[in-house]
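Materials and Methods. Structural model of Glycerol-3-phosphate dehydrogenase. The 337-residue sequence of Glycerol-3-phosphate dehydrogenase from Leadbetterella byssophila was retrieved and submitted for structure prediction as follows.
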Amino acid sequence: MVESQQTMGEKIAVVGGGSWATALIKILTENQVKVKWWMRDAEAVAHIRKYRHNPHYLSSVELHPSKVKPYLQLREALKGVDWVILAVPSAFIEDALKDADPSWFEGKKVISGVKGIISSTSQLVTDWFAEKFAVDPQHLGAIAGPCHAEEIALEKYSYITIASASEDTAKEFAKLLTCRFVKTSYLTDLHGVEYAAVMKNIVAMSCGIVHGVGAGDNFQAVMVSNAIIEIQRFLDTVVPLERKVNVSAYLGDLLVTSYSQFSRNRTFGNMIGRGYSVQAAKVELKMIAEGYYATNCIQRINEQYKVDLPIVKFAYDVLYNKEKPLKAFEELKGKFV
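The predicted structure was written out as tokens:
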């Protein structure tokens, strides 16, 4: 647990204009910080300046102009800040940062709020960022844990874990996200936490698919129970490290994403299970389901490691091999204990 510090003077840039970016800004402004918020939507920036809320996402969250200033120019948003938070869906992050220069991030600590993977390279976000922008790996971290943006907007009590290879970086940033409705902790299993977040999206999407074809709560409970074993099996092979996956950064995030009404991955999967095409589900959801892209990436990564991943294979067969969801479900049923 990290105690809240209300007198902090750090300056933070948040990159991204969606619901998670808005929720993170709400948390940050509970403390004495200055937030420079970059987004690409000129109309949204103008709206925030005039009406003090995001017009498209979590519009109930009031944004205080003394603490939050929106920007259209990324370079300007990054000037003079101590921390940079990435809150852009993984499918868009390369495009969002395509014009950025490594010098813009010099001396800054960068925290990924992206619970996804870079689809073009199958890289974890922190690895991709370190390679592209030459940021010291000790200055990189990731946000983990069961924490839906919609509940943050409602100030529902939540738990967040900050992971970094540097304990100091993790601990420092955890303090910034500690407030009256958020409890934080930290750990040093950065890559394990990132992979777990990627895989829980695949599991949640798969839960939606099987629900869409008629499976009930009993089967989903068995599926999620087996999923944490599958995730641990993958982590122990790809990122060998002593870890406890039954804590909130791993299991908690898996559970909330698999069961919550706010889970876009579960919702997306449910559409697929009910017969929607991938394209139709994307259009109706109107938000990114990270699990769709993650499925292809984890499948590709696992070609090297050959870990037994029945849930990943199930999702891949349905989404990319175009296997009928009901047929894939019948095959999946025999894989669990």
